[in-house]
Write a structure and sequence with these properties.
heterodimer, A: alpha+beta, two-stranded antiparallel ribbon, B: mainly alpha, disordered N terminus
Chain lengths: ~140, ~140
């Protein structure tokens, strides 16, 4: 059975996942025009993959009742393998034989939207945590009056 | 100095023992000790008017493995774990080590909730104990 602290931990995992998403988005924005990386080639856009994770896998009874709390974790950060953006610039030091430079496939507008989404989700999880805490404090006041 | 009859008066430091009531008080104490040995509350002793000795009640509470004493101990252990967790994260943050800000704040909030829960449990336990002590058998 989920205890007092487990329900609050779910909100914590959500906030951690959104913070990772924010970091990845800011990496993409910072490297939107990076043509050189340690691995060679231009920067590839990164995308976090979220997966649901049971908060209390050691409790088979809770799983049977389908009452297990489900948190969110970042399974991995995936690099995109889509086509790169080719720009004609023969005087660029990284231009290939045809004069085209391969730039990262980072769409700045899309990344801005992802940032806003991550920020709002972060706030939503924080609100959920606070409201749960208020509910528990109210329950502790039963019978005090 | 025993004073015979109902409505005996107290004189100086001597304890008034009303006959009939003392036998009942002893019966209550015996029953309370038996209940404490079986794992009930810490032994409640006699009615008002008869001197109550704390040492009769103290060992009874300590000998009760289940019941309010154990519930208090469990609550204290949980509170200590939560407070220590919050303390650990806060120290890491102050030292400048990388710690998730929201995890630290959440740990501190959980510690606060645990302390409040423990306070309520303790208060209820003490209230219940007092209620039983007030029982007029």
């Amino acid at each position: 059975m989920a205890s007092l602290g487990d329900a609050l931990d779910v909100a914590a995992t959500g906030m951690s996942a959104q913070r990772v998403r924010m970091s990845v988005t800011s990496s993409n924005l910072a490297n939107a025009n990076t043509t050189r990386t340690p691995e060679g080639g231009p920067y590839r856009r990164k995308d976090p993959i979220f997966s649901a994770v049971e908060m209390d896998p050691s409790d088979p009874f809770a799983a049977t009742l389908r009452e297990e709390l489900v948190g969110c974790e970042v399974e991995r950060v995936e690099e995109s393998t889509g086509p790169l953006e080719l720009v004609y610039d023969p005087f660029h030091p990284d231009a290939d034989v045809d004069g085209y430079v391969a730039l990262p496939d980072v769409n700045v507008v899309e990344e801005m939207v992802n940032m806003v989404t991550a920020s709002r989700s972060y706030e939503a999880n924080a609100t959920a945590f606070e409201l749960m805490r208020n509910m528990m404090q109210r329950a502790l006041e039963i019978g005090r009056g | 100095m025993a004073v015979g009859g109902v409505g005996g008066a107290a004189s100086g430091p001597y304890r008034v023992q009303l006959p009939g009531l003392s036998g009942k008080a002893e019966a209550v104490q015996r029953a309370a000790k038996a209940a404490a040995a079986n794992g009930g509350l810490g032994g409640a002793s006699g009615p008002d008017g008869v001197g109550r000795t704390p040492e009769q009640v103290g060992p009874g509470a300590a000998n009760a493995p289940d019941g309010f004493g154990q519930a208090l101990v469990n609550a204290l252990d949980a509170v200590e774990a939560d407070v220590k967790g919050g303390d650990r994260l806060a120290t890491k943050a102050v030292r400048g080590e990388s710690v998730e800000v929201h995890e630290m704040m959440m740990a501190l909030e959980k510690a606060d909730l645990s302390v409040r829960l423990m306070t309520q449990v303790g208060r209820r336990a003490v209230e219940a104990y007092r209620e039983i002590m007030r029982m007029n058998v």
